[in-house]
Write a structure and sequence with these properties.
With 130 residues, the chain is an all-alpha fold. It is elongated, with a radius of gyration of 17 Å. The protein has one domain. The relative contact order is 0.17. Helix 1 packs antiparallel against helix 2 and helix 1 packs antiparallel against helix 5. The longest helix has 40 residues.
Length: 130
């Protein structure tokens, strides 16, 4: 009986952490866009902050993917967390592809997609275990 309760709470807390990571990621994407706005409209010195901040931001989808296994999160949400990781990779590509600078125009569009996808995933996490 005790092991059953522990297993249920283990799943519950993993799901809760998965949802928290999704919400935090969405918030951090908004902060990242704000920092880009500061760099564009206030002072270009903020580009270094924008570049370094991604190191914090990129951890959360990876944590979500790992937690999805422990929390027995629905497979679709697991795949969406993997999609967030793929979008971060695309962000690196669009930011650093010097041979096709027009591709860089996709960078803010991908940021919007990441934000809404994180909100979409966070809102659908079944926090209560069955």
């Amino acid at each position: 009986m005790s092991n059953d309760i522990d297993a249920k709470s283990y799943v519950k807390y993993s799901r809760w952490c998965f949802a928290a990571c999704a919400w935090i990621f969405a918030l951090l994407v908004a902060v990242q866009v704000f920092i880009a706005g500061l760099a564009t409209f206030v002072d270009p010195v903020h580009w270094s902050t924008h570049t370094n901040f991604v190191r914090i931001l990129e951890v959360f989808p990876l944590l979500m993917f790992i937690l999805s296994f422990f929390g027995k999160v629905p497979a679709a949400l697991r795949w969406w967390s993997l999609a967030l990781i793929a979008l971060i990779v695309l962000q690196y590509v669009t930011a650093n592809l010097g041979s096709a600078p027009a591709v860089g125009a996709l960078h803010p569009v991908i940021a919007m997609i990441m934000f809404w996808l994180a909100v979409f995933v966070a809102a659908r996490v079944p926090v209560r275990s069955r």
